[in-house]
Amino acid sequence: MHHLVVLGGGYGGLRVIQRLLADKEVNDVKITLVEREAYHSLKTEFYALAAGTVADRHLRIPFPDDDRVEHICETVTSIDIEAQQVELKSGNVLSYDDLLIGLGCEDKHHGVPGAQEKTLSIQSMRRARKTNQIIQNVPHGGRVAIVGGGLSGVETASELRESRTDLDIRLYDRGENILSMFPPKLYNYVTDWFIDNNITIINRANITEVDWKTLYNHGEPEELDAIIWTAGIQPNKLVRDISERHHLETDRIGRVQVTKYHTIPGFDNVFMVGDCAASDHAPSAQLAEAQGDQIAVLLRHKWNGQPYPETMPKMKLKGVLGSLGKKHGFGLMGERQLIGRVPRVLKSGVLWMYKHHSGS
């Protein structure tokens, strides 16, 4: 019997499990999923949970109920890819034939003193829930800072405006403009939306230190009631440890350079997916699912004694959609730039379809 251990029940890990269970050619397999939560979480919507516009029950999807799948609700503490063992917080050790690492990402604090300990996060459901609790206790007219003007920061700021119209919301970004990865039409539209909705954008920010309720921009202190950090990500620490131990090549944000078959070089039974694996594409749920689709096919070939295809098909991603509250949005679908209500409706539709097809 083939034993696959899947670390992390995120978009990539869940997609591999779903595809394998649905494949009639996959037989005689045991899948062990290690995920500390009892459910799959819709991480792309954690900004709404943090802002208080969505309850966490709407962001949970049960894992597949199948005799071939065992869900261990624990935290992974170490991974030994040479011994083919995974150690859990309880002290239990799992052995595997094949391993899928999909442990996701963490905030990257860029060495800013105090940022890791004294800011709020939306990188996990638990942390997004805690962020919401603190935000809802900010007094009327309080000031909230969001550090980082990428997609996560923009969606968090806009959703928070919808949740708390009374707050003084300030978005700090180190670039000349927010959403620098998007075309001018889109970031100008979002900038105008922020101005119309009284969200202050501080461009060319340089956060040098963070204290409790104090943000130092270019060394100057600014008093705040809460600080949310969305200024970059990096792979899970266990993945970074593997990279250092085995001297693996990584990309600029620390994702491991994997082979064309999504495996760690030198370890053809260890696959990486999602925010752990380097790619020409930016990290996203869509990318993790596309990688998961290919990994499931490769595992089927491997278990059936079939060779891998000489070349792998190019992953085709549909684009990026962002929200500005519940009524407006922006997006990039191929070469097409979308603004206004249409991209927001599209994003809601994509979310509904995902939940529907995942069993929610």
TrEMBL record:
<dbReference type="InterPro" id="IPR023753">
    <property type="entry name" value="FAD/NAD-binding_dom"/>
</dbReference>
<dbReference type="InterPro" id="IPR036188">
    <property type="entry name" value="FAD/NAD-bd_sf"/>
</dbReference>
<keyword id="KW-0274">FAD</keyword>
<dbReference type="GO" id="GO:0016491">
    <property type="term" value="F:oxidoreductase activity"/>
</dbReference>
<comment type="similarity">
    <text>Belongs to the NADH dehydrogenase family.</text>
</comment>
<dbReference type="Pfam" id="PF07992">
    <property type="entry name" value="Pyr_redox_2"/>
</dbReference>
<keyword id="KW-0560">Oxidoreductase</keyword>
<keyword id="KW-0285">Flavoprotein</keyword>
<dbReference type="InterPro" id="IPR051169">
    <property type="entry name" value="NADH-Q_oxidoreductase"/>
</dbReference>
<protein>
    <submittedName>
        <fullName>NAD(P)/FAD-dependent oxidoreductase</fullName>
        <ecNumber>1.6.5.-</ecNumber>
    </submittedName>
</protein>
<feature type="domain" description="FAD/NAD(P)-binding">
    <location>
        <begin position="3"/>
        <end position="292"/>
    </location>
</feature>
